[in-house]
Amino acid sequence: MKTQWKKLALGLFAIALFAVWATPVPAEVLRIMNPVGEPKTELKPLAKRLDTLEGKKIALYVARRANAFEVLERVDENLKKMFPTATIVGGKEGTLWAKKAYDRPGDIDALIAQKPDAIIMALSS
Fold first, then answer.
1. Per-residue pLDDT tens digits for 20-41
2. Kind plus residue range of the DSSP H or E element containing 67
3. How many helices (H) and strands (E) does the chain have?
4. Could you give the CA distance from residue 76 to residue 97 in angstroms, rounded to a whole number?
5. Among 9, 16, 30, 55, which residue has the least CB neighbours within 10 Å?
6. pTM greater than 0.85
7. Gap between the Cα atoms of 78 and 117, Å rounded
8. Which secondary-structure segment (H or E) carries 122?
9. DSSP for residue 29
10. Rounded to an integer, what distance in angstroms lies between the CA atom of residue 55 and that of residue 101?
């Protein structure tokens, strides 16, 4: 009797399995869409690299990172040694490098208004 039940159960399972397998599946079950979309961007070329920093105006800017002030102090010292004719703006005495004044809205705009040839931004950690 137990074997008959097993055979019956196995037969029903086989029929159910065949029925599922033989059922046609629609071509499109679920369509997933990306809610972010694709941004429309315009590629711009990179800025040309300066041939030299000699005689150029170089801006120093702190980007609110740990040890950034110490990094810019060394950069300032080395730039003055390596390129004595270069003008450094936004330096230690300027408000753009003062520890209390960094990363305020408008600081980068004020720095750009000085029309530097290059900007060095401190991103240390």
1. 666 666 666 777 777 787 778 8
2. none
3. 3, 3
4. 11
5. 30
6. no
7. 18
8. strand 118-122
9. S
10. 28
Residue 122: beta bridge partners? 62
52/117 Cα distance (integer angstroms): 10
State the Cα–Cα distance between residues 59 and 75, nearest whole angstrom. Answer: 11
Q: Which two tokens stand for residue 50?
A: 């300066």
The CB density around residue 111, as the number of other CB atoms within 10 Å, is 21
- With DSSP H G I counted as helix, E B as strand and the rest as coil, what are the percentages for the chain, rounded to 5? 35, 10, 55
Asked whether the beta carbons of 97 and 69 are under 8 A apart, the reply is: yes
pLDDT in tens, 53-92: 999 998 888 766 667 777 788 888 899 999 999 988 875 5
* The pLDDT value given to residue 98: 47
CA distances, 60 to each of 38, 41, 103 (Å): 36, 29, 12
Domain locations in the chain? 57-122
> How many of the other CB atoms lie within 10 Å of CB of 91?
18
